[in-house]
Design a protein that fits this description.
This protein has one domain. The relative contact order is 0.11. The chain has two helices and no strands. By secondary structure, it is an all-alpha fold.
């Protein structure tokens, strides 16, 4: 029983770290892509708007996808 609890806690910590890393990658890639397409002429206001329009949308979409895959995996419906 104690071993199962320890394994469950480690699994939760593992997935929190994975989602955090994925979120950082998505936000970073989104910002770099927008900077590249702007020709390096992004101002402070542009960063804010672009961050909200692109990064949040793709970031939260990807996080939702990751959590969906985790739920499927935990219920034995995936892998």
């Amino acid at each position: 029983m104690e071993e199962e609890i320890k394994r469950g806690v480690l699994t939760v910590i593992h997935w929190i770290v994975v989602v955090f890393i994925v979120q950082i990658l998505v936000f970073g890639i989104g910002r770099l892509t927008l900077f590249a397409f702007s020709g390096g002429r992004f101002g402070k206001d542009d960063w804010t708007a672009a961050h909200q329009n692109w990064s949040y949308f793709t970031g939260f979409g990807l996080i939702a996808l990751v959590w969906t895959l985790i739920a499927l995996h935990n219920n034995g419906l995936l892998w």
